[in-house]
Amino acid sequence: MEKRIGFEFNARYELLGTAGPQTDEVWLVCHGHGQLARYFIRKFSSIANEKRLIVAPEGLFRYYLQGYSGRVGATWMTREDRVSDITNYISYLSAVYREVIMPLNKPLKITFLGFSQGAATISRLATMTSLPFDRLVLWAGIFPPDLPPIESSDRLRNKECLLVYGLADEFLSDERMAEQNGIARQLRVTPEVITFDGRHEINEEVVQQIAARPYRQ
């Protein structure tokens, strides 16, 4: 007989910049499958400054990428016990948000960005919580198909939504993109598409372009 238990859990996240009175923009960025936050956050070092804070949570499950030793990566979830994993990481991400962003206690511009597997992760945070944000960026990933359609449509209404990917991305097939378009229609969202010459990766030039964009009023 399967049973459940709740307990306190300690998790880490990375910061670029220092939260303070000068901060007026925050990017919450979620890495992809097999990555670690301390390396992923470096992709955004060119846009971090005294006014823009970068926050990179880390997937709650770490594992050896090959065999039983060597490089370690993290993942947000697997298909096993997925509902529980989703609940746990939403609670974790919400806790990071409350610890870093809410104490600033001032109007902020907030970008949620998810890369690859992190795109589904950040999409759930955006649509399944009431946490304020202004811009949602799905990078080399798509909306997960199980988002609550009515709640998600309401949460994404009037939000800036970007879909970013490399033209040579080996993981975004025509079928995958068709799935993305179908889910977006169901959610009544039309993401602005930004492409670049590259593969399944974060492109620093595009990061800078997005950072330079004015937020939607």
TrEMBL record:
<protein>
    <submittedName>
        <fullName>Esterase</fullName>
    </submittedName>
</protein>
<feature type="domain" description="Serine hydrolase">
    <location>
        <begin position="75"/>
        <end position="202"/>
    </location>
</feature>
<dbReference type="InterPro" id="IPR029058">
    <property type="entry name" value="AB_hydrolase_fold"/>
</dbReference>
<dbReference type="InterPro" id="IPR005645">
    <property type="entry name" value="FSH-like_dom"/>
</dbReference>
<dbReference type="Pfam" id="PF03959">
    <property type="entry name" value="FSH1"/>
</dbReference>
